[in-house]
Known about the structure:
By secondary structure, the chain is α/β, with parallel strands linked by helices. Helices cover about 35% and strands about 25% of the residues.
Amino acid sequence: MSAPAHFDVAVIGAGPAGCAAAAALAAGGARVALADRADFPRDKTCGDGLLPDAQGALAELGVLEAVAATGATVPTLAMRTASGLHARFPVPSVVARRRDVDRILLARAVAAGAVFLPGHALEQVTRVHDHVATMQLATATGHPELAARTFLLATGAARRPRELAGLGGGGVSAAALRGYAAVADLPGDELLIALLGELPRGYAWAFPGPEGAWNVGCGVFAGARQAPSLGKVHERFLASIGGTWREPPQGAPLVTSFPALAFARGNLAAIGEAAGLTRPFSGAGIGPALESGILAARCLLGEPGASGIAAYARELRRRYAGDLRAWRFGEQFLRVPRLVDAIVRRANRFPGALRRCAAVLGGTMSASRVLSPWGLLRLIAGR
Length: 383
């Protein structure tokens, strides 16, 4: 076997988190390898909605205009409760297919100087004490090794890479289905979130995308009792909005376990969904994925090696631990439809409550401002 290739940072996984980290690191002068098991372009099951927090991170990386040019700009997020109440929140969003988003982010990382290794799957990890020394990758032609001072795991919800990296397997927190459809009975200027009585602890969505292709999906969080078949719910929801499939549904797991999930050890850290950063209740994950990749890069450029990983762990907890705890509290609201109705009524009645809910939904305000006992009291009081 040939000697391993040496880098400052090796990033495993070229989705939003991995590409964001690789782009920021390479732009800062680090020697970066970016490996992914897939050959690009490739698609990923996703809602395709880029909320304000994701847009901010894309702008920081210098690719927001390019991404927006491939998608559709939508000014409003609409919520429909199981009882039929509606609220329209000012959450300006971009709907762009993941294959386009990931392609643009990858191009940015490569242009910054990252070395891209497609078709390279993580196969084995060699440790010296508590530090990763090398990672062996599997390709169609061999088993190359990467050596680096620091390693970042950006492999999404997959269990096996976390186990290989010594972080434990974690667990799936939710499951979702999405397909692309033509839709006749919805306005094209809003993202629709529909809470369905037949889908406990879950919801359906319909997002208007480019070229008239709507992203239509549904998801359910773990712990839902007597949950119906997602496929059947998906089909009924599609029929209710006058939709017909253009591309059939595909499924994906979601992990919303941060910070309970181990995400840092020695000179290795997980970023994005590999760290469990998808939000409970909303299921939004691209914003936290991008932000965590940028944060990891910033910490490693400031303090290379294990000290940078420790700094990243501290900063990630500070940024997201309370926020995801609030989202997890909010996830319980799905069990109490009357409470959801009360929140929607307050948002419709009081402009301040509407703006606060919109900022939370868009990821630009801590969820604790609404999804907490104190936040609920303020909302019900109309403040």
